């Protein structure tokens, strides 16, 4: 369920440079639903990325619009059954309830196999490398290392949390011959799982590192480890954006804007403001 934005390098005398930037000069030529406005589609109820008008993706969408000399219009969409449906609803057709799609969608996995299944859109502009991680109480759970058998055998005694219907949940239910299932606790989101760990109800939480970083909030009593093991087939994925396949002008403009945000350091500052360290893909 759930898959962002970039910023521009400003030199001294930024206002003059910005006013004359090629991205702004070409804004009138971009393929937009409403001239002068960039409609940015993000996921709803998805902290720290986008929830109730705040989050990394929302800030990034606004920054991208600014770099292109456009007014931002950020729209939060509910996630559908899968990401193919999300791209249909949020990029190339619109929702069956009548909601218009965005000009660009953020938080899209940049993966050639996934892109090949969605030829109606162009996926590009990776701005963050998401990883799977384990948050744990170190006095109860040792640092992971080696195989899943070695790293997760402790959860035959200790309880571990995961978001319901997530990659982490599926992984935990199937490793070690399914023996961990009785000790896997499911939560509506990673934030609720981490809150339960802080209360001592569970000993660890598995999930996306960005969500764990925000939920932990710098709590020194919790250790956070990125996971890498043979059994974990998908341990990381770059997050990017998507536009309609035929909108090459908008794709090029957004690619330039995200590169500028990266070079200027503004992209990293957006992430840091939400308690997440930006990782370049």
UniProtKB/TrEMBL annotation:
Keywords: Signal. Residues 1-25 form the signal peptide. This is Family 3 extracellular solute-binding protein. It comes from Thauera aminoaromatica S2.
């Amino acid at each position: 369920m759930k898959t962002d934005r970039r910023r521009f390098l400003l030199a001294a005398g930024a206002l003059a440079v910005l006013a004359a930037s090629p991205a702004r000069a070409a804004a009138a030529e971009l393929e937009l639903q409403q001239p002068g406005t960039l409609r940015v589609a993000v996921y709803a109820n998805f902290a720290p990325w986008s929830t109730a008008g705040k989050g990394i993706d929302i800030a990034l969408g606004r920054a991208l619009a600014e770099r292109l000399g456009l007014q931002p219009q950020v729209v939060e969409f509910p996630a559908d059954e899968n990401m193919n449906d999300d791209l249909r609803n949020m990029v190339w057709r619109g929702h069956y309830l009548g909601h218009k799609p965005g000009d660009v969608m953020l938080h899209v996995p940049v993966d050639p196999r996934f892109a090949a299944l969605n030829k109606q859109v162009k996926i590009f502009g990776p701005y963050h490398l998401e990883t799977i991680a384990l948050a744990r109480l170190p006095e109860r759970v040792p640092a992971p290392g080696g195989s899943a058998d070695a790293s997760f055998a402790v959860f035959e005694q200790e309880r571990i949390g995961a978001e319901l219907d997530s990659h982490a949940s599926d992984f935990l239910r199937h490793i070690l011959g399914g023996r961990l299932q009785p000790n896997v606790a499911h939560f509506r989101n990673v934030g609720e799982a981490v809150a339960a760990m802080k209360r001592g109800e569970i000993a660890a939480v598995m999930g996306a590192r960005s969500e764990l970083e925000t939920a932990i909030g710098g709590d020194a009593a919790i250790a956070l480890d990125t996971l890498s093991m043979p059994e974990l087939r998908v341990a990381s994925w770059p997050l990017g954006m998507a536009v309609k396949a035929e909108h090459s002008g908008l794709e090029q403009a957004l690619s330039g804007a995200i590169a500028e945000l990266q070079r200027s350091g503004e992209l990293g500052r957006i992430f840091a403001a939400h308690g997440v360290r930006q990782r370049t893909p």
